[in-house]
């Protein structure tokens, strides 16, 4: 086998670096905003560009501009929040903007094509002194500006794009992947993109990265963080794992993708090569091999699409657990929304019909009190009671011997336990069988595409 | 609730104690046999009646007469076996008898209605010096004759009959229950039948009984015996657990039955109240609630029925494991033979039809070599490869999406791994569906009865 060549990386690098004219426009916008904040009256002390644009590690086309406005730690929380919002509203003026609430409220909007966030923050001495959740961020900006070389900024871009390509970039609920700050730490740790990928391909479970050696040993650090799969100590705050949002599966995917890339490096690792949708006949023949059934419900009112993806993730997992408790074996589930009108949760079920009777495994014979309750609770079983493996067991009629009924029940139960407006939306659910799923795919190309990807169920890098 | 009354026990006691005329006949037969052995020429030293008749703890109608013939430990194994058989053949004369081989050969037969066994044994100093497996038995006889009071012999009978009634008596493969010698030890330990049952009802897991306190502590003993559920140290040999053959489930059943008996003592605990067979319509309506499917095969040639029950137990467990590996969830299985022509193994299967595709869970991403093999072994999966919970998974077509096919395959595979004559018998298997199972029950009352008991699946004491 020929030794793999990485020559194409310079092409990738060029494609993902903002052009000189992009950079000029970005800098002009930053200067303009900082100037406006400075001349606006209020108790704020100063303002600072944070985020990847501040470190020059942002990807081309990524026009996020995060401006942090500093307030004295002596300022009461209430005035801090009020003044922060007032200032931001003034700066945005007539440009589109909205208040967003994460730990405290801030404003985001769009000015001349830039996605701008104006975030109030306390000016604290050390990251660990933080009074609000975002107070740590300016320390990150400072740390990276001090340590990342110009050359390394380019390497950060390559690694970010690689992680984007394998869908492991972003620490949000949907991705459970790698945040930008972590990518920067990896480049500081390993030096270059290629060395980082080589290291990644060799990662074992319980990998520890502690740039500033803030913990005495990796074992020591792991103990404090409950042996997580990847522990990356924040160089500005030793009590924080920068990789906290990275799921175990994303961690495993990164390792596998790194290995595959090193064995056969290709540009398509960086630019997720969207696999074409299946045709409707292909979908039909695929569905003949498995049992899909799901629910449709309207997109809940006044909900942000991003938030809804998180809700779908949570709700579909909850329903899956409920269905499993009813003895249905769910192989995979799939959720999708168009972000406006429709939401879908679809299950791939191993055993769509069960026996009409159900085994009830009661307490151990040693537990006399519970045995008595159990026997009294089931005075006329279909079969039993008997003792199996030391436990009292019996059979009773099964409430939901068909998956359809179980799914209906589970959707109703789930709706009841959710809050508005998801609750109202879920209450309007309709069951979807395979015919309806196919009909939906026929009507909506984007759904067809998502369904195809689910049915193929293939990692782009495998 | 009225305090339970145990007055009926005297009635039970009377029913299970051999009558004076029984006892006279038994003693006459023992004397006759011992006399004949004494006057027969050969290297044997003496003879002794062992077993429960020797201790006067045998149940009425139980006419087992075990005579042990002693040889010098200096006698070579070969002469020991040869002389033992020769002597026994002479004693049985024209009465029906056969050679049986357990660890060494001996002869059993029937003389005037008594089931007689004549077993050669080495006359050793201590039970632990034993040269052959049976050399321990005479020490048991000696120990019990020394320690059991006349009164306690009656208590042993009650406890034996109680264990018979709940089907926990006998240490054979089919019962995995309590041997007679253990019943005697329990009476020595607890004093009376009622006290023994009271103790039993309170037993916890890892109960230890060490009459002669041969081990320093129960914990110590348990460690040596791998923490078994019930450890009863043989008073004549501290390295032996008299309860070794008792399964965990039988142990649990004894505890539960004891508790039920004490709460509502009834005569039927002693005399297994045979529940009537279901009618055919009852069987049909029961089968509508579950999925039964099985195999029939001819009774293997020249096989003893007892041995066959053991084979059925083993083979049906093996098949169950094979079916489970094919993703079928077996709730229970049931086997039956008429001891002459037919044998049946029937499974109660939770999921008789599965999807046409099957999830293959491959190695962990961390195991690069096996991941590579796995991916190469499945070049064109139906879906995947993808990474789930850190493992490479994919879907492939399922070989046996219907239970019927899986059962057929499993029966063929099992036949191949068995030895003659079971192998030949299994090779002639036929699949049984519910219709055929009902037809069988219609034709064979004994099968109908066994099937009914299986379908009811109810402990007589619950």
Short description:
The structure is a homodimer of 462-residue chains. By secondary structure, chain A is an alpha+beta fold. Chain A is built from 17 helices and 15 strands.
List the defining traits of the structure above.
homodimer; 462 residues; alpha+beta; Beta Polymerase, domain 2; Poly(a)-polymerase, middle domain; Alpha-Beta Plaits; 4 domains; five-stranded mixed beta sheet; four-stranded antiparallel beta sheet; 17 helices; 44% helix
The DSSP helix count of chain A reads 17
What percentage of the residues of chain A does DSSP assign to strands (E)?
15-25%
The total number of structural domains of chain A is 4
Main structural class of chain A: alpha+beta
The coarse overall form of chain A would be globular
The main sheet of chain A comes to: 5 strands, mixed
- How are the strands of the largest sheet of chain A arranged? 1-2-5-4-3
Number of strands of chain A: 15
| CATH A-level architecture of the largest domain in chain A | 2-Layer Sandwich
Mean pLDDT of chain A: 93
How would you describe this protein?
The structure is a homodimer. Chain A has a five-stranded mixed sheet, sandwiched between helices. In chain A, strands 10-11-9-15 form a four-stranded antiparallel sheet, with helices on both faces. Chain A has a three-stranded mixed sheet with strand order 6-7-8, sandwiched between helices. Chain A has helices spanning about 10-15, 20-40, 50-55, 75-90, 135-145, 150-165, 180-190, 195-200, 220-225, 250-265, 280-285, 305-325, 370-375, 405-415, 420-425, 435-445, 445-455, and strands at about 45-50, 65-70, 95-100, 105-110, 115-120, 205-210, 230-235, 235-240, 290-300, 330-335, 340-350, 355-365, 385-390, 390-395, 430. The radius of gyration of chain A is 27 Å and the shape is globular. The model of chain A has no long low-confidence stretch (mean pLDDT about 95). With about 450 residues, chain A is an alpha+beta fold. Chain A has four domains: about 20-135, Beta Polymerase, domain 2 (2-Layer Sandwich); about 150-270, Poly(a)-polymerase, middle domain (Orthogonal Bundle), CATH 1.10.1410; about 280-355 and about 400-455, 2-Layer Sandwich (Alpha-Beta Plaits); about 365-395, no CATH class. At the A-B interface, helix 10, strand 12, helix 13, strand 13 and strand 14 of A face helix 10, strand 12, helix 13, strand 13 and strand 14 of B.
């Amino acid at each position: 086998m020929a030794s793999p060549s990485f020559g194409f990386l310079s092409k990738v690098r060029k494609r993902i670096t903002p052009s000189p004219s992009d950079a000029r426009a970005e800098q002009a916008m930053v200067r303009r905003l900082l100037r406006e904040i400075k001349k606006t009256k209020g108790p704020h002390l100063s303002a600072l560009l944070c985020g990847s644009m501040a470190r020059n590690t942002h990807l081309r086309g990524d026009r996020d501009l995060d401006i942090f406005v500093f307030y004295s730690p002596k300022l009461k929380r209430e005035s801090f929040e009020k003044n922060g919002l007032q200032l931001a509203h003034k700066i945005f003026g007539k440009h589109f903007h909205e208040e967003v609430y994460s730990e405290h409220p801030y404003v985001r909007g769009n000015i001349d094509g830039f996605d701008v966030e104006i975030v109030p923050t306390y000016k604290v001495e050390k990251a660990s002194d933080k009074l609000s959740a975002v107070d740590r961020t300016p320390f990150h900006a400072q740390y990276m500006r001090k340590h990342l070389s110009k050359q390394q900024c380019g390497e950060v871009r390559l690694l970010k794009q690689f992680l984007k390509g394998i869908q492991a970039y972003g620490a949000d609920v949907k991705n459970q992947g790698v945040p930008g700050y972590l990518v920067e730490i990896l480049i500081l740790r390993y030096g270059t993109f290629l060395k980082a990928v080589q290291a990644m391909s060799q990662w074992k479970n319980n990998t520890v990265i502690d740039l500033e050696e803030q913990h005495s040993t990796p074992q020591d650090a792991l103990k404090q963080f409950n042996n997580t799969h990847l522990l990356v100590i924040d160089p500005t705050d030793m009590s924080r794992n920068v990789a906290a949002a990275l799921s175990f599966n994303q961690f495993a995917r990164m390792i596998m993708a790194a290995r595959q890339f090193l064995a056969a490096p290709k540009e398509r690792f960086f630019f997720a090569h969207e696999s074409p949708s299946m045709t409707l006949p292909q979908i039909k023949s695929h569905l003949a091999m498995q049992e899909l059934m799901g629910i449709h419900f309207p997109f809940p009112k006044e909900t942000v699409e991003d938030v809804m993806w998180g809700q779908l993730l949570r709700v579909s997992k909850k329903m899956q657990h409920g269905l499993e408790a009813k003895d249905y074996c769910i192989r995979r589930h799939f959720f999708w929304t168009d972000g406006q009108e429709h939401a879908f949760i679809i299950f791939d079920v191993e055993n769509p019909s069960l026996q009409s009777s159900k085994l009830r495994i009661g307490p151990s014979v040693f537990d006399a009190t519970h045995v008595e309750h159990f026997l009294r609770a089931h005075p006329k079983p279909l079969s039993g009671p008997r003792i199996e493996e030391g436990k009292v067991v019996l059979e009773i009629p099964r409430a939901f011997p068909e998956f359809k009924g179980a799914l209906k029940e589970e959707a109703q139960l789930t709706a009841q336990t959710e809050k508005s407006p998801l609750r109202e939306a879920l209450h309007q659910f309709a069951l979807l069988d395979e015919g309806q799923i196919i009909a939906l795919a026929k009507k909506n190309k984007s759904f067809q595409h998502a369904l195809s990807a689910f049915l193929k169920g293939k990692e782009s890098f495998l």
